[in-house]
Structure prediction request, 529 residues.
Amino acid sequence: MTEALRDKAAIVGIGTSRFGRHLPESQLALAAAAFKAALDDAGLERGDIDSLSIHIGWPLGVDYDQVAQAFGLEIGFVNQAWTHGRFVTGSLQTAAMAVACGMAEVVACVNVLSFTRERDILGGPHDFEGYRETGGTHAETPHYGLTAPAGGAALAMQRYMALYGTTSAELAAVPVALRAHARLNPKAVMQEPMSIADHQASRMVVDPLRLFDCCIVSDGAAVVLVTSAERARDLRQRPVYVAGMQGMKAGRDEFIFAPPGLGINQQSGVRAARPAARDLAVYGWADIPREAIQGLYTYDAFSPLVLFVLERFGFCAPGEAAAWVQDGCIGPGGALPVNTSGGLLSEAHVAGWNSLCEMVRQLRGEAGPRQIADARALQWATAWGDSVILRK
Amino acid sequence: MSGYEKPTPRINPDNARFWESAHEGVLRLPRCKACRAWHWPPGPVCPDCFSDRIGWEEASGHGTVSTWTVVHKDWFPAFKADIPYAVAQIELAEGVCVTANIVDCPADELRVGLPVEVVFDRVTDTLTLPRFRPRRG
Prediction:
């Protein structure tokens, strides 16, 4: 059934604001800059936008009603997710499904984060979601002093290290590779070189995560315009097609920042030797095998998430990712480049939409010194199991 | 409550029995009366058999560390004086996993698999926090 939606939706425009820290613009102002850039990229007018898919709402970002009112839009379909990075994939998928089924004509995925203005949301007394009675969404337990998404990533990586003998210096290969990508991207916030020694010298935040294992806290906006394949063929840019998709996983054997079965929260502690078919459905939907994926893009809020997504999608076996990422494998020119614009770790934290824009640039052949040769099929995938394959 | 500035847990109808029991010095966990499975966190139904018949039974208070971290960043002003402090997940003998501080344990002795036992820390007149320490004897 899913094959019926293969290549039915396309990304036809991308736009970003400037990225930086302590930017003076409001969230709406950053979103407006990205929105105008995306319309210009696509050759569309604002009156062509009839739908919104909002990933991150107020206060970190903007809500759908603010966007429609402030930008003078006439909107007839809205999706807005819970203010969490984890809903990046679903926000894009909902846009693709809406245009594929005819519910929407052109969906603007509007994404803005002003982390430097709203950093209280990242842990501490004002992170109200951390107080959830059944535990915070990243295992926060404020009454024991465990807070912030970083805490959950630390719990997962600590157990992973104990099970597989992985060291912090091996984990360093992830942020070091992403920094190398960022240095080929003038828009990236982080431009200083990073070595493994630099990583090892960075301060411990929440053991075993060091400062350089944690994404940057930045401000910026990105807009992605999605329409049907038919409409896309008449627009300014060569369409980038949504070839395949699969959804987020949840259940007792899942934890947002760990592979299935690692043993965090109520996870069983039993890891399968290889992914189940349901965990690889995206390749069948797209009719593009994993071996044909030329670049992987992921939500790299913390460096362990890159290891976990590689194992989750079977690029390597459980426990092997740390060895797999050594020696430039995921860096510029590597066997599987990851987050070629620098990701959340080094470009900017636009909740992954900066990386989705980069995928589109790559598939159009517009990535300059970062260009993956003859890029035809790229995969967005997360440690929590959802994915989108884009093709040109 | 005077003087206690750290965050306190939100107590609701599903988890109130846990906190009442802890204040009495008892680690009591939800257990299904139908299929006899323990579960965590507390909820309205058994996640194993979906029964509504949830009881609360005293647990052994023994377990092993399944993962841990040491917090070095002062996210909470009220925890600043405690830095660095340890938070762990403990797989209890009953098979469920809970999150709590590890106390009375040097940082270099923290490890996955460390046997621990519960201790009760009465932090206010109405709140007692279960924590865990390396098992003795």
